[in-house]
Specification:
The complex is a heterodimer of chains A (133) and B (88). Chain A is built from 3 helices and 8 strands; from the N terminus they run E-H-E-E-E-E-E-E-H-H-E. By secondary structure, chain A is α+β, with helices and mostly antiparallel strands. In chain A, the strands form 3 sheets. In chain A, strands 3-5-6-7 form a 4-stranded antiparallel β-sheet. Classes of the chains: A alpha+beta (133), B alpha+beta (88). The interface between A and B is medium-sized, with 23 and 23 residues.
C-alpha cells in the first residue's frame, strides 16, 4: 500500500531527535511517517477476467475481495458465494478459477434437479460465463 | 469460528452429504433428488481457511453450525432450517 498524505504528520525534531547543527540541516518541521509502515503488497480487491478452460469464457469480470488469513490468502466472490485460497494470491486466484469451472460443469449437468438456491446460482453463472462455440 | 478438516467430515456424516474428491473435497446436500446446498474443503488436514464461507454455503448461522458440531442439530433439523428459508 502506498503511503498517503493522511499517513504523514508534521513533526519537530524532539530533544532526542537529530541535532540540526551537527547534521547541517535547518531546524524546521519535517515530513515524517507517523509510524513504521510494514504493509502487505497484497491488494484488497482484484477483478478476475479469465478462466483457464478452453470451452468457457467470462462475459464480465468477477470482483474478488482479497483477505489474508494466517498463512493463507483467500479470495471471495460475494456474488457467487464462492472462494479460493492458497499460500499466495496467485494460487488463491487459480483455486477460485478451478472452483468456478468445476461448479459450472457440475451445475450444468445437474440443472434439471437443482433446488432454488442452486438454480439461482446456475442462472448467475450463465450470466457471467458463456460456452465457446 | 474456524473449522478443522475432521469437523468438516463430521458435518458430512451428520447431514449425509454426497461427496466427490476433485482437487478439493466437494460436498453437497441432496433432498428428494435435488441438490440444495454445496460446499467444499481443501484435501489438506488441519484448520480450513475461510470457514465462514463453508457455513454460508450450507446456509447456517454461527449458532446452527455450532449445534451441528456439538450434536443437537441433525439431518432432520437441517431440512427444517432449509425449509424455513424456502430452500426446500
Amino acid at each position: 500500500m502506498a503511503i498517503e498524505l493522511k499517513d504523514l504528520v508534521l513533526t519537530e525534531p524532539g530533544p532526542t531527535g537529530p541535532d540540526p547543527e551537527r547534521r547541517g540541516v535547518q531546524s524546521r518541521p519535517h515530513l515524517l511517517p507517523s509510524a513504521v509502515l510494514v504493509e502487505s503488497a497484497t491488494p484488497t480487491d482484484v477483478l478476475l477476467g479469465t478462466l483457464p478452460a478452453p470451452e468457457l469464457r467470462l462475459r464480465a469480470p468477477i470482483h474478488l475481495e482479497v483477505q489474508r488469513e494466517g498463512d493463507a490468502v483467500t479470495v471471495w466472490s460475494s456474488d457467487l458465494n464462492e472462494f479460493g485460497y492458497g499460500p499466495h494470491l496467485t494460487e488463491a486466484i487459480e483455486d477460485f478459477q478451478q472452483t468456478v469451472i468445476e461448479l459450472y460443469r457440475t451445475l450444468e449437468v445437474q440443472q434439471s434437479r437443482l433446488g432454488p438456491s442452486m438454480t439461482e446460482l446456475w442462472a448467475l453463472l450463465q450470466l457471467l460465463i458463456e460456452r465457446r462455440p | 469460528m474456524t473449522l478443522k478438516a475432521k469437523e468438516f467430515e463430521r458435518i458430512v456424516r451428520k447431514l449425509g452429504l454426497q461427496t466427490r474428491n476433485s482437487g478439493d473435497r466437494l460436498a453437497w446436500f441432496e433432498h428428494e433428488g435435488r441438490t440444495i446446498t454445496r460446499t467444499r474443503r481443501s484435501n489438506k488436514a488441519g484448520d480450513l481457511p475461510f470457514s465462514h464461507a463453508i457455513r454460508q454455503q450450507l446456509k447456517l448461522t454461527e449458532d446452527q453450525l455450532r449445534d451441528l458440531l456439538d450434536c443437537p442439530l441433525d439431518r432432520d433439523g437441517y431440512v427444517a432450517i432449509l425449509r424455513g428459508k424456502g430452500l426446500i
